[in-house]
Amino acid sequence: MIQIEDLQPILTASEILTELAQFPGTQVPYLLLGPEADPAYRDQTLQLSEARVGSLVFINDLLRSIGQPVSAIDQLQLTLTLPFTVPPTRVRELAQCMAAFNQRLQLGNFGMNGQNLAYFRYHWLVFERQFSSKSLLTAIRLAYQQCSDFGPRLEALASGQIQLASAID
After folding, report:
1. Residue 120: φ, ψ to 5°
2. CA distance 88 to 92
3. What does the pLDDT look like over 8-28, one tens digit per residue?
4. For a Cys-Cys bond, which of 59, 83, 132, 161 suits 156, CB 3.0-4.6 Å?
5. Residue 123 — very low, low, confident or very high, per pLDDT cuts 50/70/90?
6. What is the model's pTM?
């Protein structure tokens, strides 16, 4: 069965920066992904563990760590965090914009966490963790592309540079 650390050489060979990490207080490994998701990334010199860029984790690993039942159909969760924080006064508009964008997407969705960080997330169902390297790389590149296509408009809306109607068009 494929483990998350088995994915690191595949991604590294494809010039995707990675760093193996563990969730705090657990033995659950995940991969941090490099800042390629944002061509205008603000600080390329950050260590990946200090940057809010992206992660890959098998959901069954998380479930197992908290004593929850797991399924033969695991999920590989890919999350790419967008490089901006949403001011509280802009959360409602950004949520509306994300909902409009999510209706257009064939894969994944945009959202915000409790700290008002915007992200793109994709849950990939993987039976017994069997999938090809090509499929993995395609999914990651597509997620990066979604962030490149929609991220600048989300950031402009969050900063107040554009209005909701302009962002959605």
Report:
1. -115, 135
2. 8
3. 999 989 888 888 989 888 889
4. 161
5. very high
6. 0.84
